[in-house]
Amino acid sequence: MVSEPTVLIVGAGGSIPYGFPSGPELVQEITTACIEPRRPNPLAESLLKIGCEDVLMYEFARQLMASRRYSVDAFLEKNSRFMEIGKLSIAGALLPLEKAPGFVENDWYRFLCDRLIRNIDAGKTERLTVATYNYDRSLDFYLYDAFKHSFNLNDEEMPGFLSNLEIIHLHGSLGPCSWLEISKGVPRSNGQLGHPQFVRAIRGIKIIHEQADDGEEYGRLRRVVGTAKRLVCLGFGYHPTNVKRLLHGGWLSHHHSVLGSALGLSIPERNDVEHMFDRRISLTNEDCYRMLKNQVGIIS
Predict the structure, then answer these.
(1) Which of 17, 28, 184, 228 is a plausible cystine mate for 5, CB 3.0–4.6 Å?
(2) Which residues contact 137 (CB under 8 A, 6 or more apart)?
(3) CA gap 143, 113 in Å, rounded
(4) Beta-carbon neighbour count of residue 265 at 10 Å?
(5) How many CB atoms lie within 10 A of CB 119?
(6) Angle between helices 54-67 and 23-35 in degrees, nearest 10
(7) Any bridge partners for residue 8, and if so which?
(8) Helix 195-204 and helix 83-94: axis angle, to 10°?
(9) Which candidate, 81, 43, 39, 42, places its Cα nearest to that of 59?
(10) pLDDT (tens digit, 9 = 90+) per residue, 5-38?
(11) Are 259 and 233 in contact (CB under 8 A)?
(12) What is the per-residue pLDDT for 289?
C-alpha cells in the first residue's frame, strides 16, 4: 500500500482530532466523574451500573487527583490496587467516543486513506504497519469502512483486501480488533455501554508496566520494523519506557529513516528525544495531518 515498507508509530496525539482526550484531559474527566459518583454524570452512571462501589470510585479519584500525574496509566503503574477501577474508568470514558467521525479539521485519517487508495490504484502494494499506543480503535474502524465503501467490497472480501495493512495496538485495545474480527461485526460502543463492553475492554487494556520489553505486540512490531525502510512517529509523546521498548534489541540501524512529530515540545524536550534515538530521528514541528501532507513521500 506504499512505495516501500513503512511503519507508522501513533501516540495519543493521533486520536485527539477525533474527539479523544489527551492524557491530562482523561485524568480530569475521570476525577470529575468519580469524586462525586452520585452526581449525574454518564461515566459515573456507567460505572455504578456495572457494580462499581462509589466509595472505591471516590478513593480512586481522590488519589489520582492528588498524584498530579499527567495520565491515568502513569498513576496506575505505581498504584496497582486501583488497576481494575482504573481500567474500567478508561474504558467508560473512551468507549462512547468510538463512533464514526463527522467532519474533522486536519483529518489525517482521511488524508492517509486517500493516499493509500491512490497507491492501490497505481499498483503499489508494499506493506504498511501502524503501531499505536492508543486503546481506541477509531483508526481501525475508519480505514475498514473507507476501503469497504471505496472499493465496493463486502465483509467477507475485506480481510484479504487488507492483507498488506496491519494495525498493532502495542498496549492493547478496548476490545478485539483485526480485519477478520471487524468483518464479523466487532461493535463500536456508540455510547451504549454494558457489562460485555467493559469486560472486553479491561481484558484488552495493558498499562505500560504490564507490557514486557519482549512481549507479543512488541515482538510483532520488531519483526515488521526489521524489514521496514521508514519509521514515522505521529502524535507520539516519546515516553522513555516506550522509546526504550521501541529500540529494544538494537533494530534502529543506520539504514532506517526515522521522522517524528514534535508539536508542542520545548527545545530541551526535543534534544532529549533526539538523544533517545541516538540522533537518528528528524523532528518536525507539525501536527499529524500537516506532517503527512508536507512529507508526502511517507506514503507515496
Answers:
(1) 228
(2) 98, 169, 173, 174, 175, 177, 188
(3) 7
(4) 17
(5) 18
(6) 140
(7) 130, 232
(8) 120
(9) 81
(10) 788 999 999 999 999 999 999 999 999 999 988 8
(11) yes
(12) 93
Residue 231, strand partner residues: 7, 258
If one counts every other C-beta atom within 10 angstroms of the C-beta of residue 164, the result is 16
Task: Report the predicted TM-score, pTM, of the whole model to 2 decimal places.
Answer: 0.88
Residue 135, CA distances (Å) to 22, 160, 206 in order: 12, 25, 9
DSSP track, the chain: -BSS-EEEEE-GGGTGGGTPPPHHHHHHHHHHHHHSTTSS-HHHHHHHHTT--HHHHHHHHHHHHHHT-SSHHHHHHT-GGGHHHHHHHHHHHHGGG-S-----TT-HHHHHHHHHHHHHHTT--B-EEEEE--S--HHHHHHHHHHHHHTT--TTTHHHHTTTEEEEETT--SS---HHHHHTTPPP-TT---HHHHHHHHHH---GGGS-TT-HHHHHHHHHHTT-SEEEEES----HHHHHHHHTTS---TT-EEEEE-TT--HHHHHHHHHHTTT-EEEE---HHHHHHHTGGGG-
Q: Which residues of the chain have pLDDT under 50?
A: 1
What integer pLDDT is reported at residue 79 of this predicted model? 94
Q: Looking at residue 202, what is its pLDDT?
A: 80
Contact (Cβ atoms closer than 8 angstroms) between residue 34 and residue 61: yes
pLDDT (0 to 100) of residue 192:
58
Residue 91 and residue 137 in contact, taking contact as beta carbons nearer than 8 Å: no
Task: State the residue for C-alpha cell 514486557.
Answer: 212
pLDDT for position 19: 92
pLDDT of residue 24: 94
Quote the pLDDT of residue 296.
57
Query: Could you tell me the three cell numbers for 33?
Result: 466523574
Nearest CA to 246 out of 33, 68, 11 is that of 11
